[in-house]
Structure formats: structure tokens, C-alpha cells
Amino acid sequence: MPIHDVNVMILDNDGVLRREGKQLPGVVELYAQLEKRGISNVLLSNNSRVTSDGLVRQMKQFGVKDFCKDQAMTSAEAAASWIRHNPSADRLEDMRVFAVGEEGVFRSLQELGIALANDQWDGQQWSGLPTDVVVGFNTKMDYATTMAPAWNAIHRGSRWIHTNGDVSYRNAAGAMLPANGAQLAYLSTTGKEPAAVVGKPNREMAESALRRMNVTQDQARIAVVGDNLTEDMGLADNLRSAGWNAEGWMVLTGVTTAEDCDDPSVDRVFQDIRQITRALLSR
Known about the structure:
Layout: E1 8-11, E2 18-19, E3 22-23, H1 27-36, E4 40-45, H2 52-62, E5 72-74, H3 75-85, E6 97-100, H4 103-111, E7 132-135, H5 147-156, E8 159-162, E9 168-170, E10 176-178, H6 180-187, E11 196-197, H7 204-212, E12 222-226, H8 229-241, E13 246-251, E14 268-270, H9 273-281
Parallel strand pairs: 1-4, 1-12, 4-5, 6-7, 7-8, 8-11, 12-13, 13-14
Antiparallel strand pairs: 2-3, 9-10
Helix pairs in contact: 1-9, 3-4, 3-7
């Protein structure tokens, strides 16, 4: 697809717009070009701990003053949206969800009117088994009040939705630590599998964002911009497999080096987002 045919851009956050919490060069200029050319865009974050409100604050701090909530989605919000579109009960109000995670998970469920069942676990057993278990990354978990009841509910038949399968993350000191994929592996010892893992590279989060933008397959020409072969380029692959016209655009400001880009999922390689902006300006 010619670069100027792109009319939708799906962007990653870490390694693309920021690194180690600090803004990378070229963010304001890229978003100015997207606005000027009418390119619909969404910032997709696998981080279930944050909210789209938090991403809006970040982008405004970066200087993108007109960035709005509809331009961002987290894996927690995508999980809540997935539940709303795929209810486990005849009526949404009959669903009771046990939530594992931090602010992003709880707020995303509550904002869509989904009732929580966390108060139904008394430390030993359920007073009412939840219909669903939603699991986001939790760095403050207590075994007795989070993973034990989640495991028990899934084992007994509650539907399981996982926000993302990220195996690890790098903390502020640069150390690699287990992430939500480790929680997925733990809960897999129930012998069950998640009904959905909604974050990247799976396409559920992207398709939820595309629906919100009223973008359809027949009109979309998508660039997935990221720094990660598995999550971002994998998302482009999965969108293509589902019939979307999508390319994977790799930037080298994150975890991937140029040597790693000899991969069929990578359609274009850019040094950074400034080079993407120059490419959009080249005509």
C-alpha cells in the first residue's frame, strides 16, 4: 500500500511516543500531520493499569493539546467492551465480574455499568459465584484476595477474560519482571483457557477501537506503528488475517533493532516517528 493511502493509524505508546516515561521527539509534529491529512488514529496500550483518561493527560503534557479520550484505548477498556458485546448472561445486569488488576480494570468495568463480585469472596469461599473473571496486571496483588479467588472461580466454571498476555516488562531501573502473561500462566493451571485475551497482538482491542471510530474493512487502510515484533507487528498480521488492509510499521526507538526487522510481518522500518512525519510530508 502506498504510504499516502493510509487513512487509519494505530499507534503504540512505549517505545514509539515515549521511552522510560519520557517523551520521544516528534510527537507533536506527527499528530499535527495526522490531523492535517484527516488520518483517523488511536493510541492502543496493552497496559491495563492505566485508563484512557491517563493517556489523554500524558498526550496533553506532550503538547498534543487537542488529543481526546476517543483517541486512546487500553486493554482493560477493551476487555470491558468485549464483555459488554459478549455477555455471559441474558441480561447485562445479571452479570457479576470478579476483577483482578489496578485502577484501569476496575474503572473500565464500572464505567460500562458492569457489576463487580469482589465482595462475594469472604476469604474462604464464594457467597455467589461470579459469572466472569477479568484479569489485568496487578503489581500489588495479595494471593488470598486476588489470585486464589480468581483461580477458584475459573476452576468452578466462571468465564475468564484476560486483558493481555505480555510475559514481562522492564521497570524504571531497567530490570525485567513478570507481567500479566505470568498471571495467565498461573491461572492456566485450572485446566481452563481464557474466553478472550483482548490485548495486542490479538485483534479484539484494535477492532473495538475501529468500531468506535466507525471504520469498516472496505474503507480502512491501516498502518500499525509499534516497536515490538510480537505485539505490534503481530497485531498487523492478525488484522490482515481477519480481512483488514493493514501494514506493520516498525520504529527503532524501542525494543527492536534493525537487525530484527527482517521479518515478514514488518512492512516498513522507520528510525523514529519523525521519519514517519517526513514520509507523510514527502508529497
